[in-house]
Amino acid sequence: MIEKKFWYVLYTKPNQEKKAKEQLDKLCIENYLATIRRNKVWSDRIKIVDEVLLKSYIFICGDESDRLQALELPSIVRCLFDRGKIAIVPDWQIQNLKIFLSKAENVFVSAGKLEGRKVLVKDGPFAGIIGTIQKHLNRNYLSITLDFVNRTITTQLPEDSVQFIESFSEMLEETSLSENKLTEKFLSI
């Protein structure tokens, strides 16, 4: 019998996220470390580095035995829980995060959940992303909230993509619930 695989959130020791990724890779446990490329400036040089976006968090996809094996690693502290149960992250949220980070250039992370209008981006560089749109100083920002780690990741939207964003109620008028899997995802947030 094959056990079903889920995405779990693991909490790492401080500044041990990349070490945890290496250790998980050696065990052949599927994992995802949310990183972003940034220019780091020192007094004598500028270097492009992959910076960990969610400090002390790494995601693994596996069954219960994979999760228990990962918890034995020296760089992993614990698994996150939600209301007394192991926190399981839906696959679409991990995919949403991966797409978002692959397209975003300047992102910033804030604690908690930002208020705004929930949207599904239908076209442009962020097509397929489900998130929240806010307007600040005449600029549009797209945010995705990661409830399980209480963080919001935000980036500025390109001006030409704003016209392609529809609200959920407008999207329902055009698409039936059974025909669109993104609609199902939208309902769950």
Walkthrough of the structure:
With 189 residues, the protein is α+β, with helices and mostly antiparallel strands. The chain has two domains: 84 residues, NusG, N-terminal domain (Alpha-Beta Plaits, 2-Layer Sandwich), CATH 3.30.70.940; 94 residues, no CATH class. Helices cover 24% and strands 39% of the residues. It contains five helices and 15 strands. The strands form four sheets. A six-stranded antiparallel β-sheet has the order 10-14-13-12-11-15. A hairpin with an 8-residue loop joins strand 11 and strand 12. The longest helix has 13 residues. The radius of gyration is 18 Å and the shape is globular. About 9% of the residues have low confidence.
Write a compact overview of the structure shown:
The chain is α+β, with helices and mostly antiparallel strands. It has helices at residues 17-26, 64-71, 91-103, 168-174, 181-188; strands at 6-12, 30-32, 35-41, 46-52, 57-62, 76-79, 81-82, 85-86, 88-89, 107-111, 117-121, 130-136, 139-146, 151-156, 165-167. The longest helix is centred in the middle third of the chain and has 13 residues, at 91-103.
Please tell me the total number of domains: 2
- What is the overall number of helices? 5
Mean pLDDT: 79
Beta-strand percentage range: 35-45%
Overall number of strands: 15
Please write out the topology.
Elements: E1 6-12, H1 17-26, E2 30-32, E3 35-41, E4 46-52, E5 57-62, H2 64-71, E6 76-79, E7 81-82, E8 85-86, E9 88-89, H3 91-103, E10 107-111, E11 117-121, E12 130-136, E13 139-146, E14 151-156, E15 165-167, H4 168-174, H5 181-188
Antiparallel strand pairs: 1-5, 1-6, 1-9, 2-5, 3-4, 7-8, 10-14, 11-12, 11-15, 12-13, 13-14
